[in-house]
Design a protein that fits this description.
This protein has 108 residues and is an all-alpha fold. The chain has one domain. The chain is 47% helix and 0% strand. It contains 4 helices and no strands. The longest helix is centred in the last third of the chain and has 23 residues. The radius of gyration is 15 Å and the shape is flat. The N and C termini lie far apart (42 Å).
Length: 108
């Protein structure tokens, strides 16, 4: 997770209050180099960088809030909340499939 100046503010009315954004001030990544969380590529040295970023995330008290923010604000790049770009894309695909299944079940 990058430093707080790079963390987007969610646009949902339920999450834009100052209290909802307060989690960013407790993020373990605040003291880390933001570059760590934005590796170039997903092979070779980038894999080591992704693992190092995830290590920071695993020690973070606000990891879940960070991941939710990344998903809500559609962050396509970087490691957020302990999840890589590929992992977040997979989460989005699973959620979309579940929505389709629920919609199909309701209409059947």
């Amino acid at each position: 997770m990058p430093s707080s100046h790079l963390i987007p503010t969610p646009h949902s009315p339920t999450t834009t209050s100052a209290a909802a954004q307060d989690w960013r001030h407790r993020a373990a990544c605040r003291e880390e180099d933001p570059e760590l969380f934005f590796p170039v590529g997903n092979t070779g040295p980038a894999l080591l960088q992704i693992e190092e970023a995830k290590r920071v995330c695993r020690s973070c008290p606000v990891q879940e809030q960070c991941l939710l923010c990344a998903l809500e604000t559609r962050q396509d790049y970087g490691v957020w909340g302990g999840a890589s770009e590929d992992e977040r894309r997979a989460m989005k695909r699973r959620a979309a499939r579940q929505r389709v299944r629920k919609a199909t079940t309701r209409t059947a």
